[in-house]
Design brief:
Layout (H helix, E strand, L loop, with lengths): L7 H10 L4 E4 L7 E3 H17 L7 E5 L4 H12 L3 E5 L5 H11 L3 E4 L1 H4 L9 E3 L2 H7 L9 H4 L8 E6 L9 E5 H15 L6 E4 L6 H4 L1 H7 L3 E4 L5 H11 L3 E4 L1 H10 L15 E4 L6 H11 L2 E6 L9 E4 L8 H8 L4 E2 L4 E4 L4 E5 L6 E2 L3 H7 L5 E9 L5 E6 L3 E4 L2 E4 H9 L4 E11 L3 E10 L7 H11 L8 E4 L13 H11 L1
Helix pairs in contact: 1-10, 2-3, 8-10, 11-12, 12-13, 13-14
Length: 506
């Protein structure tokens, strides 16, 4: 017997098995506290609302918002009803968002109220999340949950979500993740992270990041309490952990740095979550010092995962349970490695040391980019663009990035995109962009600029130029003016030389 896997399977189990358990604690002024029966009712009502609006099966539906309960609803309602979810980073600029909406072919956009007005130039309907979206879906006349509303059985290899990369090799690319990709990623992550019905999950990870790493699905299947957080503030995180008994959270190293920075000013007799919280970290390489501080000062178990949007996103996990008797510094050093491959994941390396991945988690391909899809999926192996190796016990260790990607605060930034932006300034003759180490953000965007003859410009002017045209986190925070850029014999800019120069100047 073969039963197609569907993202709807997860919520159906919550509705059947945990109807009266708490599903959601939303931010003040939002949805409040909902049980899984109430949450499933809102999801079913949203599906009927999409049907009534003529948004057909297979249509792309974009969602642009920080973490909100209504976003969590749509993560279930859109793909599980046979439509395609397009989650978009709300920190992107309006031109960047417009490009993704157009490239994806989204029929309609649901946006955070603070963004909705600025997106009115987008040539598709933009619905503000809140009272306007509630009216659109018909939440004043709720629909009783039914299996046919919470799950549409279809080809498990059909696209469920279209997740855009950060444009690390020019324009962002739409990654097609299937129901099968998401189903197996969610269940495998739940297995390796040891998720259980008694857990309480705090959404410190943005839901637009690969559907919140598929955590909304596995938490539903186990009836886990989801606590929403729309903006990361250290005190707010600690308060929610204390007030709701949070046991699991995910995020980039910068999230952990923010939490640690909030500790000195608190009056708690004990750090909230000590001996209880498991934190799953990804998005940038954490330092051993940060890992040691998390486990020593917070008393939380640190787990590292490695992956990419194209692997939906899990490749490897490094978990050393706290009960293992190990020197804290040595333990932290071991946890900086990316870890063992996930169940069903095979790794290999090409002649350049590039990490190759084969698993059920790998995307079906890039949307409308058959040429590039064939290139990165050649010979049935996904080419990650990262160089790495296996250590003596088989854990993956990433040694370098083959692509010039800058990872700042857990966000990937394309150096090419920033270079193209700065190059449009009339005073810029040549430009190269790279990252420099930053204690809080991991890396900071740095530009090397050669000025055009008879032109002058200040560092502040160029930074503002970029901030007006790009998401603010993509704009450089430092401009280095130089007479020439180092180049190879074939004319390519030697960014390794620039990075070495940054290291010397530091």
């Amino acid at each position: 017997m073969h039963v197609p896997l569907s993202t709807g399977d997860f919520l159906i189990r919550a509705w059947r098995c945990h109807p009266d358990e708490v599903a959601l604690s939303d931010s003040p002024g939002e949805l409040g506290v909902l049980t899984w029966r109430q949450f499933a009712t809102r999801v079913a009502t949203a599906v009927v609302g999409l049907d009534s609006a003529g948004i057909e099966a297979g249509a792309r539906v974009a969602v642009i918002s920080p973490n909100r309960g209504r976003v969590l609803e749509l993560i279930h309602a859109i793909p599980s009803s046979g439509r395609v979810l397009v989650p978009i980073n709300p920190r992107l600029s309006v031109p960047e968002i417009t490009h993704i909406v157009g490239d994806s072919g989204a029929r309609i956009v649901f946006a955070d109220p603070e963004l909705a007005m600025s997106l009115q130039s987008i040539p598709v309907p933009v619905i503000s999340l809140g009272s306007e979206s509630d009216k659109f879906f018909g939440h004043d006349s709720p629909v009783e949950p039914e299996e046919k509303l919470l799950r549409v059985r279809q080809d498990e290899n059909a696209t469920a979500t279209l997740n855009y990369t950060s444009g690390t090799t020019s324009a962002p690319k739409g990654v097609q993740l299937t129901h099968r990709n998401i189903w197996l990623t969610a269940t495998t992550l739940g297995l390796h992270a040891g998720l259980r019905e008694t857990d309480v999950y705090l959404h410190t990870l943005p839901l637009f990041h690969v559907n919140g790493w598929e955590m909304p699905y596995i938490t539903a299947s186990l009836g886990i309490h989801n606590v929403m957080l729309s903006a990361i503030r250290g005190d707010a995180v600690l308060d929610l952990i204390r007030d709701h008994g949070v046991t699991v959270l995910c995020g980039a190293p910068t999230v952990l740095s923010t939490i640690l920075a909030a500790l000195p000013g608190r009056s708690d007799a004990e750090v909230p979550g000590t001996g209880r919280v498991r934190v799953i970290c990804a998005g940038a390489a954490p330092s051993s010092a940060l890992i040691e501080r998390v486990e020593r000062e917070l008393g939380w178990e640190f787990i590292q995962v490695f992956g990419l949007t194209e692997t939906s996103p899990m490749v490897a996990m490094n978990r050393i349970p706290l009960e293992h008797d190990a020197d804290p510094s040595e333990r932290a050093a071991q946890l900086t490695k990316q870890g063992f491959p996930f169940l069903g994941t095979d790794l290999d390396f090409d002649d350049k040391g590039q990490v190759l991945v084969r698993s059920n988690h790998v995307m079906s391909g890039y949307y409308q980019r058959a040429d590039l899809s064939a290139q990165v999926l050649a010979n049935d192996w996904f080419q990650t663009g990262d160089a790495g190796r296996l250590d003596e016990v088989g854990r993956l260790e990433i040694t370098d990035r083959l692509k010039d990607v800058i990872v700042t605060g857990g966000e990937n930034v394309s150096s090419l995109q920033v270079e193209e932006c700065l190059a449009t300034h009339p005073a810029v003759w040549e430009v190269a962009v790279t990252g420099r180490p930053h204690e809080k953000w991991g890396e900071a965007v740095t530009a090397f600029v050669v000025l055009a003859p008879d032109h002058d410009v200040t560092e502040a002017d160029l930074i503002e130029w970029a901030r007006e045209r790009l998401a603010h986190y993509k704009a450089p925070s430092q401009i280095n003016f130089t007479l020439t850029l180092p180049r190879t014999a074939t004319g390519k800019v030697q960014k390794n030389v620039l990075r070495a120069q940054i290291a010397v100047d530091a």
